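Students often ask why we bother encoding 3D structure as a string. The short answer is that it lets us treat folding as translation between two languages. Here is a chain of 292 residues written in the first language.
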Amino acid sequence: MIPGMSGDPQVYLNGEFTPLSQAKVSVLDRGFIFGDGIYEVVPVYGRKPFRMGHHLARLRRSLEAVRIANPHDQAGWEDLVGKLIATSDAPDQIVYLQVTRGVARRDHAFPADAVPTVFGMATPFAWPGAELREQGVRAVSMPDERWLHCEIKSTSLLGNVLARQFAVDRDAVETVMFRDGFLSEGSSSNVWVVKNGVLVAPERNHLILEGIRYGFIQEMAAARGIPLEMRKIAQAEVEAADELMLSSATKEILPIVSLDGKPVGAGRPGPVYAQLRQSYDEAIAALARRVG
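And here it is in the second language, the structure alphabet:
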């Protein structure tokens, strides 16, 4: 039994579906040796992928950025995601996709003839609990010490792992990171700031991984008439925020009510979060009801 996993679900590996316990890759796979690969996470609600076109576009951008040949076209990826969804009875799922550069003799330079390794699996969606959604979460902060290509959804996640463990060790849900005195992101989420009713997010660049919810929250804010700015955000602005929020595929949108042991704003979820949460829930409910 794999820690944290139940049963033995069917997974996809290099053109075949197989039980997870029997899925094997070579120890010379560059994903294992170098972390030389990329990944994508597609949420599924009511057995329907959420903004899959956006997820596949980011997958393509990451592959191009690290010069791994894309093993599927758009239709091929959509077909694979559909087949992965069918491996699970759960209506709400997380589909995980990973592509590495493949198996080759250990050498830092790109191998000329390696065939990409493609892996995929679907797992039930562990929804954020009602307590987290309604009462908010604690966060801590630390300097962002990761590399300078955070826009690539790389499997080389050691910096993120260390930042996430920094939060766990302090009984917090997330670590908010700052680079040179400005907000970058969380260990596995984007971070949003609210001040005087204005929603502010870090500008899209190589210092953050732009979550698919970036554009989605931008759309919801526009629909609700919430002013939105995307710009550099000083650490002092974060510390003085009326509201803080985090967003990711697995955490959706959650309010941060404590940062480094100090209350954020009034120390409870705020009105901008409440509006976005309502819009989010309505959108997901509509997706789950949609036919086709």
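Translate back mentally: The two ends are 36 Å apart (CA to CA). Keep this in mind for the problem set.
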